[in-house]
Amino acid sequence: MHEKSVSQRLKTPKGIIGLIILVFFIFMAVTAPLLSPYGPTDVSSQPLLSPDNTHPLGTDDVGKDIFTELLYGSRTSLTVAFVVSFGVVVIGTFIGVFSGYRSGASDRVLMRGVDIFLMIPDLPLILILAAYLRPSIWNIIFILILLGWPVGARVTRAQTRTLRVSGHVDFARVSGATAPYVIRKHIIPDLYPIMVTTLVMQSIRAILSESGLAFLGLGDPAYPSWGSMIKYAISYPMIFFSDAWMWWLLPAGTCITLLVLGFVLLGQSLESDY
Amino acid sequence: MEENEIIRVIDVTKIFKSKRLFKGNSLVTALDGVSLDVERSKILGIIGESGSGKTTLAKLILGLLKPTSGVISLADITNVNNEIRKPTVQVIFQDPYDSLSHMMTIEEIVAEPYLIKYKSRYSPGNKVRNVLESVGLTPAEDYLHKYPYSLSGGQRQRVAIARAIITNPDIIIADEPISMLDASIGVDILNLILDLNENLGVTFIFITHDISAAAYICHNIAVMHSGKIVEYGSRNQVLVQSQNAYTNSLLLAAGASLISYENKKIKENFNPTLC
Amino acid sequence: MSVLDIEELTVDFTTNMGVYHVLKNVNLKVERGEIVGLIGESGCGKSTLAMSVLDINSRNRRMSGKICFMGENLQNLSKEELREFRGKHLGFIPQSSMNALNPLVRVKKQFTETIKDHVDMPEKEMIALSNDMLSLVSIDPNRVDSFPYEFSGGQRQRLMIALSMLLSPELIIADEPTTSLDAMVQLQIVNLLENMARQKNTSLLVISHDLHTISRICDRIYIMYAGRIMETGTKEEILRNPRHPYTQKLLSSRLPLMVEPVRIKGIPGSPPSSLKLYQGCEFMERCERRSEVCREKKPPDCIGNVRVSCHLEG
């Protein structure tokens, strides 16, 4: 897995397309205030307007500009994606490396904890917690990290255990290296590819979870979300009897699909050897 | 400890607890009451098949493992300034593909023990270049920025030797350094070890399963089998005058022919004979 | 009719780094019941030859020349036909094959599945055949229910030999069968290969870097360097009267077992990269007898009566 570097893997067609998609959405998120004609929660106009000059994608059933919501929705999705994936990688790596390097009793205890977490089915727990806690974006992020770090820990622990008995680690120890040195110089660099892959996978999971929760009405109402856009569009009774679905329903669904696709392509290009 | 001894292994036993799936825990005695002395500035060969315990003994001397019972003691060395210190030990491993980190350049790999020892207080400077050239990797410039994957097995072992000598250790343990190399490349590595021993006075412990390799470079030889030392003495004692059945079976397998049981000689076997 | 007849085999691999010229105009024959050794340093292309015959390295590969097995041109066969050939008529013991056994499957099952893949045989017969093979390689048939990890390296190698001989193929290619084994075990394995081959009249192509050990059992030997055959001959010719400088160096770099310690020299330098194309002889840089003609012109290939590929020995 180390014959190609990260940058080499990204230069493949899949990697380039994935990157382009990701950059596109990052751009969208960053420039949202500049591009959108209205504020994210403004109820500014007549409801259910068709697209025109002032409303590029029309308005929804309470008069909010759809285009604005779409742009700000990307902020929500990307924020959740990056914070959750980063959190999972950092916590998972920390615990995984500690557990894998130490072995013995602390390792066994930690891994039993990991096993328990892994046994818990993700979605039901997320739903229950989301229903009982305040519907806040940070609670959602917290839950996703809480349920995600065990996967990261397992993977980094396995790699750490393998590396710990390798010849170059033995040599460093013979030369007098301390455990922090060995971890810093011989183990963590080897984990970069796995960490990058975990970042991508967790981002996908986070985006889909957040959109899913928003669709079910458990999202944070203060944050515009593509998931809730779909929810309101679908629940409008006449949605398919007019053309409204084209500019109200379709863009949000497309954005979710496209963003996830971007991460998927990135993930596949990073994992492949050809 | 005697004047010219640098390591003394006294009745060392090492028992591993082996956890086998579905078979419950079992105890594996890797070393059973092993004793030997290592003569300073000489090359000691430890010959044994897989499972004889020779690698375990090496790891114990290196401090990577602790004995279950018994003592390994290292003689004090007196400096030029009349300071007393313990000897330093380095190692060369068997697998040139596993013992060099594929994320580090050759320069980083060779400099590493120096930087660890002096805690980055001194820069290795030209030492890395010099040591690379002394193991035959010339010009050193060509190798400094390469990664291990672009080197052959023989070149990697030379890098392993280079990094083992950069801190001027007193003792180097070479654990099967040529087993994974082509026969023709192995000869050069053995010649390199001979040169280092002659020129720098480094004590070597050379671990191998190949008695011909031990015969090529060792001054003293210990033969191991199933965790015990079955024979131990000078090269001459073990190879030419041995009465031990196991040692003789190893010699026979390597192509020595025994003229008679009482008057053993190793037949000149320079031209390969047909069997 | 030869069992294996390789004519003018040239194999290149194209990658981002350039074209690797791995095999150049190789001619090699194995007759019925013969044991042939292909000797060369690591990286000289000998494993590529084995894999090209078995056609398991076709990615990015450009191949020219003929490979005839039992008279059939292997390149004319479809993938399916070739797959049937492999295992049933053409056996293979890969490098480090002691690690090629599936660690999760009991030995018995690995044997019976191999048979099942190629022949229809009742369960009882399969087990009988497996047990026969295990006895032939000196492994207690009662251990057939064990997992591979319960055997030592040498024993696993013997299991692989038994596995490859199960269907009585006409030719077995063994790639470095003695690497990673102790000196004593290497001898046992090599003798075992010879006994099995003679008993079942199977032809054997043994690939190795260890001229000394492998030459014990060979009828004929090919010496390969940088993708070309440098010398070929019977065992006696190669061992008693080596003519190519490289062969001579290989023989003289064998560790001697002498009463008084002696020093010998290895072969200076290292093998050339297969990315480079040579106008003249590839061994020239490391040869003590080199001359101008060696730099400029390629020595004649070992075809037909030509035994040595060297300007100075032609």
Any key phrases for this structure?
heterotrimer; B: 275 residues; alpha/beta; Rossmann fold; six-stranded mixed β-sheet; three-stranded antiparallel β-sheet; 11 strands; C: 314 residues; four-stranded antiparallel β-sheet; 10 helices; 32% helix; 22% strand; globular
Description of the molecule:
The complex is a heterotrimer of chains A (274), B (275) and C (314). Chain A has 274 residues and is mainly α. Helices cover 73% and strands 0% of the residues of chain A. Chain A has twelve helices and no strands. In chain A, helix 6 runs antiparallel to helix 7 and helix 9 (179-215) packs antiparallel against helix 12 (250-271). The longest helix of chain A has 37 residues, at 66-102. Chain B has a single domain (40-69, 87-253), classed as 3-Layer(aba) Sandwich (Rossmann fold). Chain B has helices at residues 54-62, 106-117, 127-134, 141-144, 153-165, 183-200, 211-217, 235-240, 245-253, and strands spanning 5-20, 24-39, 43-47, 69-74, 77-78, 84-85, 89-92, 171-175, 203-208, 220-225, 228-234. In chain B, strand 1 (5-20) and strand 2 (24-39) form a beta hairpin. With 314 residues, chain C is α/β, with parallel strands linked by helices. Chain C has one domain: P-loop containing nucleotide triphosphate hydrolases (Rossmann fold, 3-Layer(aba) Sandwich). Chain C contains ten helices and ten strands. Chain C has a six-stranded mixed β-sheet, with helices on both faces. Chain C has a four-stranded antiparallel β-sheet with strand order 2-1-4-5, with helices on one face. In chain C, helix 4 crosses helix 5. The interface between B and C is large, with 46 and 40 residues.
